[in-house]
Amino acid sequence: MGITPEGVLRKQGAEMDHTGTLSNAYLLMEDDRIADFGPMNEMPEADAYIDAEGGLLMPSFCDSHTHIVYAGTRDGEFLDKIRGLSYEEIAARGGGILNSSDLLHSTSEEDLYQQSIERVWEMIRKGTGAIEIKSGYGLNPADELKMLRVIRRIKNECPALIRATFLGAHAVGRQYTQEEYVDTICREMIPAVSEQQLADFIDVFCDTGFFTVEETDCILRVGAEYGLRPKIHANELGVSGGVQVGVKHQALSVDHLEQTTDAEIEALRGSCTMPTMLPGSSFFLGLPYGRAKAFIEAGLGIALASDYNPGSSPSGDMRFVMAMGCIRMRLTPVQALNACTLNAAYAMGVSEQVGSITRGKRANLIITHPMHSLTIIPYHYNSPFIRHHILAGNLIG
Ligand code: NIG
Ligand code: FE
After folding, report:
1. What is the per-residue DSSP string for 124-193?
2. Which ligand 1 atom is the nearest neighbour of the CA of 311?
3. Which of 20, 22, 59 is nearest to 43 (CA)?
4. Contact 276/254 with Cβ under 8 angstroms?
5. 307 pocket-lining for ligand 1 (C-beta < 6 Å)
6. Which of 68, 81, 93, 170 is the best mutation target for the ligand 1 pocket, counting ligand atoms within 8 Å of the beta carbon and taking the most?
7. Burial 60-90, CB ≥16 within 10 A → b, else e
8. pLDDT per residue rounded down to tens, the chain (397 residues)
9. Dihedrals φ, ψ of 251, to 5°?
10. 20, 26, 59, 366: which has the fewest Cβ within 10 Å?
11. Ligand 2 centroid vs 168 CA: distance in angstroms?
């Protein structure tokens, strides 16, 4: 499953209904790459074999939106949520993102790395092979750079493909006014991040109670001067205008989209921006799910990602994300697979390297337990399904 011709970097509209499939087939890896594949009767000689024994072979998941570098947990707020407080109410009381920021400040860089790499390995064991990781719990220059250094270390030391995003504009740091903070991001943080080459992308939480469209516009303009392409948080808590300002700045993706109208669909049509939906935060916060079907019917592609973070989605399980795509957003299993692999790879700028079974791409592959159909993966949504996970040609133990 997941065979895609070379050069296809994303799927949109009706293209999402298809995935290249071969039954009774072989796949040949050379070093870290997919060298070839074809029908079993044409299998070439090889040094070693893994027999799939009736399992499916599919590309590893790509998770294009996470906040997995964080310190501690926010289980106290989880209890507040159970008692009836909303995400915004918790944030307005000084909890939420600021709570994680205080914890991160008092955690050493080494400890932060150890806590975060454990989450990375949990995700890898659950079938994820490419991960975008955001900063955004530092909220001052020193702590944002500390987070980004931890992401760089993860990138150098784990077998998954990692991309880093600077999300200084996640919330206003405690020691600043809103205006002072936006100014600090533009004048101090972006230049430092760029000079130290710590980020591939820039993000802003453009939403009710966080950053306005005007502030987002300003931050993205400065980001562009430093070569940072946007991937932004938009339309989670309100119809914020985030989608439109993202498209204006040629964002690689606009993410969340729990609150959209047809105007957002119109804005995205014909753009290079991948709408990305995060069913894990809809599930955990009790928000509406993104209108994935309407987007696809309008000819757009969509990606799905976990949003793994301590406040709104404390899970990086992409198989559960895929299942929620089917169960709650009514995607077909093939649409959900495309959303969690090729389109998610596009949304983090790596679809030339991963996200499908394509000759020359990195061999990031899952061999499942024996199953007769892809549908079994979201259907038995909580049963173990991975028999082997291979990253860059190596079996993960
Ligand atoms: O994507 N919405 C903004 N940021 C994160 C939540 C971060 C947090 O609560 O720690 C999200 O849901
Ligand atoms: Fe997020």
Report:
1. HHTTEEEEEEE--S--SHHHHHHHHHHHHHHHHHSSSEEEEEEEEETB--TTS-HHHHHHHIIIIIHHHH
2. 9
3. 22
4. yes
5. yes
6. 170
7. bbbbbbbbbbbbbebeebeebbeeebebbeb
8. 999 999 999 999 999 999 999 999 999 999 999 999 999 999 999 999 999 999 999 999 999 999 999 999 999 999 999 999 998 899 888 789 999 999 999 999 999 999 999 999 999 999 999 999 999 999 999 999 999 999 999 999 999 999 999 999 999 999 999 999 999 999 999 999 999 999 999 999 999 999 999 999 999 999 999 999 999 999 999 998 999 999 999 999 999 999 999 999 999 999 999 999 999 999 999 999 999 999 999 999 999 999 999 999 999 999 999 999 999 999 999 999 999 999 999 999 999 999 999 999 999 999 999 999 999 999 999 999 999 999 999 999 8
9. -60, 145
10. 20
11. 12
Q: How far apart, in whole angstroms, are the C-alpha atoms of residue 310 and residue 134?
A: 13
Cβ proximity of 302 and 276 under 8 Å: yes
Atom of ligand 1 nearest to the CA of 97: 10
Ligand 1 pocket mutation pick from 307, 308, 321 by most atoms within 8 angstroms of CB = 307
Q: How far apart are CA 278 and CA 289, in angstroms?
A: 8
**Strand pairing report for 274-277 and 303-304:** parallel
Return the ligand 1 atom nearest residue 205 CA.
Answer: 3
